[in-house]
Amino acid sequence: MVTKFLMLKDIRTMRWGPLFTGLTYALTSLLWLSIGLAMRALLLLGEQEPLGQPDLAAPAFLLNHAPEWLAGIVFAGLLAAIMSTADSFSTSARRRWCATFRRLCSDALCGELFWTRIATAALLVASALFALYMQNLVALLGTFGWGTFAAAIVPSVCIGLNWKRATGLACTLSVATSLVLNFSLELAARYGVYELPNGFAVGAFSLLASLVVFIGVSLLTPQQALAPDVEAAMEV
After folding, report:
1. Which pLDDT band holds residue 223 (cuts at 50, 70, 90)?
2. What's the DSSP call for residue 221?
3. What is the CB neighbour count within 10 angstroms for residue 189?
4. What gap in Å lies between CA 119 and CA 55, rounded to an integer?
5. Which residues pair with 111 in a beta bridge?
6. pLDDT for 67-120, tens place per residue?
7. 158 near 228, Cβ under 8 Å?
8. Is residue 181 within 8 Å of residue 189, measured between CB atoms?
9. Is residue 211 pLDDT above 90, yes or no?
10. What is the pTM of this model?
11. Are the C-beta atoms of residues 189 and 144 closer than 8 Å to each other?
12. 3-state DSSP call for residue 182?
């Protein structure tokens, strides 16, 4: 979303964003809420056998109790959403990879395309292993994902783009802090090693920690001169 906002040529087009995103989000939220309630009702009426796990409710309803055309639209929409999101994330990661390892990506034999494929394959393997061994409900994985994004993005984007005192080192360390805390605490809770007290959400704790690191490091490190285009954008 941040990438797409930065690609806008006319800021006035953003006025339509809340209308369309609000309507679509309400529609999709009602879709999943209604499927859950419908499956519960079918189970109580004896028209549906108990499912092995809650994540099977949506596909079971669409395949057994919904018209074929509706099931096709929903499954196609899910695949499209997964593909577009995965493409955005992998593209961003590949660009960062090549920006960091410019010498490797400029090699005549193994150029940017080669290392892009390597980075994509590594992301796919890591994602598959994470999804396979976490064994969480899809909703909990979604909550973990959004918590990770918030902890990594809020300090550097929401504060960094509005605070000239922020530094690049603070941004890097805050993102690293959020990622390390999110994954380590989630895995520690999953395998019974350690769990935050009183049901404290991992994403919320990581966000607070990344904010402290971002602000603290920015205040302790020398202020950096901003590029003219960056400074102009921050004055908008």
Report:
1. confident
2. S
3. 13
4. 30
5. 106
6. 999 889 988 988 888 787 777 777 776 676 666 666 656 655 566 677 777 777
7. no
8. no
9. yes
10. 0.64
11. no
12. helix
The Cα 162–Cα 156 span in angstroms is 9
User: Which residues neighbour 234 within 8 Å (Cβ) at sequence distance 6 or greater?
Assistant: 161, 162, 164, 226
Q: How is residue 193 written in tokens?
A: 């090693």
DSSP conformational letter for 16: G
For residue 112, give the amino acid letter. Answer: E
| Amino acid at site 180 | V
- Residue 182 · residue 204 · CB < 8 Å: no
Measure Cα distances from 177 to 63, 145, 188, 218 in Å: 43, 15, 16, 14
- Whether the Cβ atoms of residue 214 and residue 160 lie closer than 8 Å to each other: yes
Q: How many Å apart are CA 78 and CA 202, to the nearest integer?
A: 27
Quickly state the pLDDT bin for 177 (edges 50, 70, 90). Answer: very high
Q: Dump the DSSP string for 33-78.
A: HHHHHHHHHHHHTTSSPPPSSGGGHHHHHHHHTS-HHHHHHHHHHH
Arithmetic mean of pLDDT over the chain: 81
* Confidence tier at 225 by pLDDT (50, 70, 90): confident
